[in-house]
Write a structure and sequence with these properties.
CATH class of one domain: Alpha Beta
CATH architecture of one domain: 2-Layer Sandwich
Helix content: 55-70%
Organism: Cucurbita moschata
Structural class: mainly alpha
Shape: elongated
InterPro entries: NPH3/RPT2-like, NPH3_dom, SKP1/BTB/POZ_sf
Family: Belongs to the NPH3 family.
Order of helices and strands: EEEEEHHEHEHHHHHHHHHHHHHHHHHHHH
Distance between the termini: 108 Å
CATH topology of one domain: Potassium Channel Kv1.1, Chain A
Number of strands: 7
Largest sheet: 5 strands, mixed
Strand content: 5-15%
Protein name: BTB/POZ domain-containing protein At5g47800-like isoform X2
Pathway: Protein modification; protein ubiquitination
Radius of gyration: 38 Å
């Protein structure tokens, strides 16, 4: 980082309660009030350098009090200007340049007031040092956030943005300045070439409005590929929207989110499906506008066949964990919204979607993804059966060449929800097409006590319809298993009725004894 040192005298300012003054043999004759700080200083040497103070002290009074509460940068910026006038050593850098420059402009410390004045020296430092450096420009622009109106009017913001954009558009092979790059596995010593996204982490430190200006300027040149701009958006989201809740500064976070979404290039490959889905989850959490959600859902659905199950796993923002454990309800509604958008676009394809080879591959990829997702969320004990059924039934029949995966999902759900009602178990198992189950899965199904008997019977009928030698022994074994299950249920029912009869007999006997005893002892 570049520095500029001005002045040679030692610092003689000191504080006494809420008053700042300077050690001097001459009595102070100028009082400057800024917020809660009072400065006791001298007209000379301030007045020769400050056009504003010259006008305010034109009455030639012995001692003058002036209020400068509106000075940009506050008391710290004013003190830099005052020390420059006294010839006291000051160190200027990208951190304090903007506030010092705005304060100097406010005090009118131009060459028209005195040759070699503060503004001229600051402008030289800005143009020759700050704008020449990458990180210096970033720091200066970041420090301008609290003084945006002043820095905009003075051209500081625009010059910084132009300098940053110019450097971003520089070919990586010509990048000679230092930059921040902390990607896992990256080592500058072993990687001689500069990565194409070398600039993304540094501009992620900027306020969202300044970041937007830079991305818009870059995009307008059409010189960078859309995925590179998408990576910059991803880095910014990771920096400012990591793991947040709806209560954490939601208005600011929503502004950041909606701005990032508006900056995504139209190209489908500009951002990954995992990032798109995360943006959708954040949009639901932060209450983004309907237009924003619709746009993100559309992007997610266009990339859905590239997703993995882990990309789809988000905690439901409305779920509550009643038992205090680690289980939580997955955000199935998010997946349903994306899947419905995908299916809507898929059905609009021409020719007929189920007759087009490429579209058939696409829908079957998504079908396998959804069935794998169902196997994961089925383990969630808080998962409502209605959502499980809705998502399983949403896929068209052509999406599943076989029903083995959806069978596994149903079996897992029944295992994790042992108290599911008989009616719900039947509704859930209606999703299954027993004719699309493999031989191994059918063999498992007929022995599966979690399945309704009706489903097991359907599997048996299908086996019998096939009627070949390979399946006859399996059908016989399955029939024996089914009869065994039925007999077991009958035995349990009979045993239960027997226990009830014994209990009733015991109760009658006790009542009789009580009656006899009451008669003997009137």
């Amino acid at each position: 980082m570049k520095f500029m040192k001005l002045g040679t005298r030692p610092d003689t300012f000191y504080t006494e309660e809420a008053t700042r003054t300077v050690i001097s043999d001459a009595p102070t004759d100028l009082i400057i009030k800024i917020k809660n700080i009072t400065y006791l200083i001298h007209k000379f040497p301030l007045l020769p350098n400050c056009g504003l103070l010259q006008r305010l002290c034109s009455n030639n009074a012995d001692k003058i009090s002036i209020e400068l509460h509106d000075i940009p940068g506050g008391e710290e910026a004013f003190e830099l200007c005052a020390k420059f006038c006294y010839g006291i050593t000051i160190n200027l850098s990208a951190h304090n340049f903007v506030s010092a420059f705005c304060a100097a402009k406010f005090l009118q410390m131009s060459d028209s007031t005195d040759n070699g004045n503060f503004i001229a020296k600051l402008e030289t430092f800005f143009l020759s040092c700050i704008l020449a450096g990458w990180k210096d420009t970033i720091v200066a622009l970041r420090s301008a956030v609290g003084l945006l109106e002043w820095s905009d009017n003075l051209g500081i913001t625009r010059k910084c943005i132009d300098s940053i954009v110019e450097k971003i558009l520089t070919p990586p092979s010509k990048v000679t300045w230092s930059y921040t790059y902390t990607r896992p596995g990256y080592n500058k010593k072993t990687h001689r070439s500069v990565p194409k996204d070398w600039w993304t982490e540094d501009i992620a430190d900027l306020d969202i409005d300044l970041f937007r200006c830079i991305i818009v300027a870059i995009s307008s040149t059409c010189m960078l590929p859309p995925p590179l701009i998408g990576e910059a958006l991803h880095v910014y989201a990771c920096r400012w929207l990591p793991d947040i809740s709806a209560q954490e500064n939601s208005a600011k976070n929503r502004q950041i989110l909606e701005t990032l979404i508006s900056l995504i290039p139209p190209d489908q490959e500009s951002i990954s499906v995992s990032f798109s889905l995360r943006l959708l989850s954040l949009a639901n959490l932060l209450g983004a506008s309907s237009a924003t959600k619709t746009e993100v859902i559309r992007r997610c659905s266009a990339l859905l066949e590239e997703a993995t199950v882990s990309d789809l796993l988000f905690a439901s923002h409305s779920a509550s964990n009643d038992d205090g454990g680690d289980e939580h309800c997955h955000d199935v509604d998010l997946v349903v919204a994306v899947l419905e958008s995908f299916l809507m676009a898929w059905r609009r394809q021409s020719p007929a979607a189920d007759e087009n080879a490429q579209l058939l591959i696409s829908i079957r990829k998504v079908g396998k993804l959804i069935d794998s997702y169902l196997q994961v969320v089925a383990r969630d004990r808080n998962m409502p059966v209605a959502k499980m059924i809705y998502l399983a039934e949403a896929l068209p029949d052509v999406a599943r060449p076989n029903h083995d995966h959806v069978y596994r999902a149903i079996n897992i759900f029944l295992k994790e929800h042992p108290y599911l009602s008989k009616a719900d178990r039947k509704r859930l198992c209606r999703v299954l097409n027993c004719q699309k189950l493999s031989a191994d899965v059918r063999a498992h199904a007929v022995k599966n006590e979690r399945l309704p008997l009706r489903t097991v019977v359907q599997v048996l009928f299908f086996e019998q319809e096939k009627g070949n030698s390979k399946t006859s022994s399996r059908v016989a074994a399955a029939s024996d298993e089914l009869r065994s299950r039925a007999d077991e249920k009958l035995r349990r029912s009979a045993s239960t009725r027997s226990r009830h009869k014994v209990a009733e007999a015991d109760k009658d006997e006790m009542n009789t004894k009580h009656s006899l005893e009451s008669r003997r002892n009137p």
